[in-house]
Amino acid sequence: MCIMALIWLFSRQIPMAVLPFAVYSVFHVATYVRSNLLPTIQPPPAGAQPGTKSSSGLSDAIGKFVKEYYDGSMTLVAILEIALWFRVFGSALLFQKGSWILIVVYTVFFRARYAQSTFVQGAITQLTARIDAQLANQSTPPGCSPGLGHLQEHHQAGG
């Protein structure tokens, strides 16, 4: 993730690229505050044994927030990363400056994310299901089905 941040820093600016980092940052800051800052600001009571965790209301609220919204937020990040790939791909199709290098680097990054993240895998599965539903729709032009079917076979083959 750090390497992609550097690439986005030195490449042409795409505001959409900031959104996944913003979501990650919310959870990193919340977790850091809960695990490092709050114990420093609100030390355990004087009678507490060393090594035992005492929780405050704020710590519990942060923990509840992280637990409740983490999965949904990571799914949102996965969808944003997919949308960003299509955005970069569109730039490459229009031959914008530096876009071909960016699409290669981002594709490598995205393949690594797909291999490591169940959220990205789930988002791809959901996207594939939506495409299948559109192809099964009677109003889809007959010429679209073979082309999208070929892309889906290519994806399933791992290419």
Short note summarizing the structure:
The protein is mainly alpha-helical and 159 residues long. The chain has helices spanning 2-10, 18-41, 57-93, 99-116, 118-136, 144-156. It has one domain.
Features:
159 residues, 6 helices, mainly alpha, transmembrane, membrane, elongated, single chain
Write up this protein.
The chain has 159 residues and is an all-alpha fold. The protein has one domain. 75% of the residues lie in helices and 0% in strands. α3 crosses α5. The longest helix is centred in the middle third of the chain and has 37 residues. The radius of gyration is 22 Å and the shape is elongated. The two termini are 23 Å apart. Keywords: Membrane, Transmembrane, Transmembrane helix.
